[in-house]
Design goal:
The chain is α+β, with helices and mostly antiparallel strands. Helix content is about 40%, strand content about 25%. Helix 1 (about 10-35) runs antiparallel to helix 2.
Amino acid sequence: MATQFRYSRNSFKISVLTAVGLTCIVSFLVWLFSRLFGFAYYNTITLVSGLIFFSFCSAAMIWRFMRNEVVLAVRPDGLFDARYSSQAVPWDDIKDLRLRQAEHEFQLSVFLWPDRAVYGDAGRPEFSIDLAPLDGSVESVVHAIAPHKTISLDQG
């Protein structure tokens, strides 16, 4: 039985508002510099750059949220994170899991064995799972992983 987590509605709203705010700032700067440099089609340049920036900021997140797709799943065969891979990472490939807290946000760093890691750097996590935008609590994620792998608390 897999334990599945999706994006939460509240954190999705915050993420979209953040992306919209950043897009407004970038669009204003593009508009300002387009006007300063005397481009004839400054409004079109601003619109296109704003759309491109917004799509790069949040297109994948919005797509997964609208489709209500599973973002993180703790399965008997491995740990699945849709933001990292389309396949689950087998438990035997995971060397270490470390839970790190930065202010009120938690991240789960996943370290793979060196012969299975893509990056090959033992001091760097293969990928980190941001737990804040998920619909489950940190405790529920840790509780779901506990039977499969030990999670250590990262003090750094």
